[in-house]
From TrEMBL:
Pfam families in UniProt: DUF805
CC per GO annotation: plasma membrane
Protein source organism: Leifsonia poae
Keyword annotations: Membrane, Transmembrane, Transmembrane helix
Descriptive protein name: DUF805 domain-containing protein
PANTHER family: INNER MEMBRANE PROTEIN YHAH-RELATED, INNER MEMBRANE PROTEIN-RELATED-RELATED
Length: 128
């Protein structure tokens, strides 16, 4: 999956918590989110109040705008790695929680239960 395909997929499935998200989809989205946030924070040179800066305002609005897609892709990635959606609550644990989640998100994809890893062999020809 390419960078652009990953971004399109996350925005297309912005509120879909079912299904799975591959490692490339998740990590390309994380990079995109980091780049947009960093670019918006460049506007911190513009002060819009006594203690308010334009970059912080724009970055905060972006974060609110992508909160649902971030949570959805994170839950789908956890499911793809073989973990339940409840592990997203590791985010509530300061510092150690994000470390645990990064380890979970970095795991390779697991086959869902009941789905064979290889297709079944074709049936043998009938004897004449």
């Amino acid at each position: 999956m390419s960078f652009g395909e990953a971004i399109q997929t996350v925005f297309r499935k912005y509120a879909e918590f079912t299904g799975r998200a591959s490692r490339p989809e998740f990590w390309w989205w994380a990079l995109f989110n980091l780049l947009v946030t960093s670019a918006l924070n460049l506007f911190n040179v513009i002060q819009i109040g006594d203690n308010a800066y334009l970059g912080s305002l724009l970055s905060g609005l972006w974060s609110i705008g992508v909160l649902l897609p971030n949570l959805a892709v994170a839950v789908r990635r956890l499911r793809d790695a073989g973990y339940g959606w409840g592990h997203i609550f590791w985010l509530l644990v300061p510092i150690a929680g994000i470390i645990v989640l990064i380890i979970f998100w970095a795991q390779p994809s697991k086959q869902p239960v009941g789905v064979p890893s290889t297709p079944p062999p074709p049936p043998a020809p009938a004897a004449a």
